[in-house]
Amino acid sequence: MIVVRTVTKYFGEKAALNGISFSVPRGSITGLIGRNGAGKTTLMGILCGLIRPDEGSIQISGIELFDNMTLAREMIGYVPQKTSLYPEMTGRENLMYFGLIRGLGGKKLTDSIHEVMVATSLEEVLDRRVSHYSGGMQKRLNLAIGLLGNPPLLYLDEPTVGVDQESREIILETLLKMSHERGTTILYTSHYLQEIERICDRLIILDDGVVVANDLSATLLRESESLEQYLEENIQK
Amino acid sequence: MRKYAAGILKEFWLLKRDIHALMVLFVMPSLFILIMSLAMRDAFSQNSEVHFKAMVACEENSSASRDFLAHLKAIKGFEWSEGKSTQLPALMMEHEVLLGVIVRAGFDEATHKNSSQNPKLTLLIAPESTPVAKILFETAVAGTAAKINMVNQMSSLNPWMTREEKEEALVEKVWFEEHFLQGKDTTDIRPTSVQQSVPAWLIFSMFFIIIPISNTFVNERRLGTLARLAVMNVSIGNLLVSKMIPYFVINQIQFIAMLMVGMFIVPLFGGDALRIGDNIGALLVVSSVLSFASISYALALASFVRTTDQAVTIGGVLNIIFAAIGGIMIPLFVMPPFMQQLALFSPMSWGLESFLAIFLHNSGLNDIWLSLGALILFGSFCLGLAAWKLNRELKEAQ
Known about the structure:
The structure holds two protein chains of two kinds. Chain A is α/β, with parallel strands linked by helices. Chain A has eight helices and ten strands. Chain A has two domains: 139 residues, Rossmann fold (3-Layer(aba) Sandwich), CATH 3.40.50; 71 residues, no CATH class. In chain A, the strands form two sheets. Chain A has a six-stranded mixed sheet, with helices on both faces. In chain A, a hairpin with a 2-residue loop joins strand 9 and strand 10. In chain B, 66% of the residues lie in helices and 7% in strands. The longest helix of chain B is centred in the middle third of the chain and has 33 residues. At the A-B interface, helix 1, helix 2 and helix 3 of A face helix 1, helix 11 and helix 17 of B.
């Protein structure tokens, strides 16, 4: 689904990404992990087409991202780390707005809103203003917007940061369901190794702008208490 | 197209919940128009109801002093009373009287002579009286005294002149008729305070579109919504245009509403009704160009600030400065020449000049193209600045 070839990005003299290559198979849930400053955010920005790499290429379903940005982006559902919503609008209005932006309309829009609303358990609060939602509800709505129109590819940037246990469960279950029932390809970044281990099929580990491990089984994380411990024991040796 | 529709719909959803912004956009200018039209009505009115309180104190009882008093009382613009010269300073201290004239003993005799080496009139002017009031008062007193002096000299030369003939000589003659210029034509339509206050406060409130625009725009930048929208193939151009359209509609509703206030509400409170002239097309063009300039300016400002508080404070202060130097708060014609030159730096002044040209001179677009051109250039520069900043910010955000 995603093929990244020798992508390099410099910010001034420093290489944020240094010739990284990896691929993400269709229908998989791939965890993208790394320490702070490893280059995850830059990579996410490049995969969304927000940052142009200095070298290398990215293909999404065989489409060259930076040659045919509009078409490639139509396949992407993006869930940013910040709750990028309109707090003064209701949940339904937010979904309608982003649904229209996604190109949905009429019955397709109504059905899609209903579907993501049920998936994220927001039925009862959908007509309330988002500013009255709890942090967890806001994160669920943030996810619901990414799911609108059932995109074949989903990028999630730390979607469970600062979320209560109930909302965390709903988010993780929704992602598993999307992958298993719809075959959605998911690229997931998180600092929580237990989450990664629980939902991801495979792992990509970034460190200091390079891929230090690719296509690892997420179960390898089970024996490590933290990413730092895992990196020290398995990568830096 | 659907993206534009979504953007417009979203702005309306947000706007309808921003009650404070709506108050600023509609209630504030309505009140300003009403208050300022009524407060400045007499400053513009040709049938002035301004009455400066003035007192005459006669120290002699002569036919000259009685004539003097009678003719002063006929002069418009003053509320005359009579009193004693000893009372006058105290009354002026208590603000009961603003202007006073004391007719000294010997006035009658002096009016029969050809020179006045020894003035028999004393003027007292309260410190709070305006220069205009002082000049009007001096002119009224000097004119009346000169007239009585002339008639008394005539009667000295002609001892057979009857009382009736003297009175006839004192009657005010009509020397001129007056018309007001409107375009190349003359008209009897008089300029009124409402013609100044409606466009002035309309423009002021149009520039306060900064409040609702910054409320949404700053949050979109702060919460990363712009990046999310970019991933959903929403371009910066798309974003800016779908913001401009709803606020343009709001500005046009403001324009119509404020004209209605001037035409129908102000007269209910005793003010003059607004006359908008015949050139409706030119008015609509001015309103549209002004809207483009004010929205672009608001977008540029909202692109540079970090919080909505900053936007409201900086935008508010800049608007007040633009208004103060641009003839919004104080009409340009009462400002000294160097302040009138300063008004050239205020986009509000360019808009006001255009509206006043249409209201007062029936001007068309040919006459106001320079002001409109300046507004379009200003708006285009601000819009370009906003687009540049957003583009840069989207790159930096990653």
